[in-house]
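Supplementary notes (optional reading)

For those who missed the lab, this is the record we used. Protein: HRDC domain-containing protein. Length: 245 residues.
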Amino acid sequence: MKLPKKGKEDSSNKEKRLRKSEVLTSKGLELFDTLRQVRIKEAKAEGVPPYIIFSDKTLMDMCIKLPFDKTEMLSVTGVGEYKYEKYGQIFISAIRKFMNDTKENLFYQGAIENLEEKSVSKSKHIRKVDFYLTDEMKQNIKPLGKVTISQFVDHLNGLRDEKLMKRLTATSLTSILKEEGYLKEEFNRLLGRNTVTVTDKGEELGMSLQTRISDKGNEYSVVIYDDKAQEYLIFLIDRLGSYQE
């Protein structure tokens, strides 16, 4: 009974290897295996399945784009602010070390064009569902400590099947929090525009306002959500149902 199943899995894995070999050069495949080992190491350290760290699709995109810095890494499929803060530099270091800080194409141009054509073709036929939390996603949600809503949303989006489900947006959640009185907009005289601030009700929930300095030296504020506030966001998503991209 097990032999047919094993044969089927071997066939599937072989097809995946063939697809990678059609896209990546031999050196590209070596880099992919290197990144896969980095992923395994991080997964073991956290006690989670490797795909929770990054999917194969994300690793392949890293091999194609060869990100050497934050901006380039954030352009990789499946890498948001949260994933970058947690794993970005680890994978960037591995890529730069493998490439000896020198970039070169590790893919076949024709294969990339075919992938893009297939992606466009599939997007025309597959209708994604609005974002919602599946039971499997809920099991993989972890407390993140004090984070922004964008970082929290990145974490949730990283748990979904991006081929089948639309992205959750921070804007959609922020709008609901305003309606429920946890956040409000106030006119900031120094900035000359409306800014979002936390109400007393929001502070009781575990939300706070934090001042930061931009790269250009400008001061700005962000709303921070602790673990208690994140639990409420999960409850909110479940209660209100799906969210559109």
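If you only remember one thing from this example: Confidence is low (pLDDT under 50) at residues 1-18.
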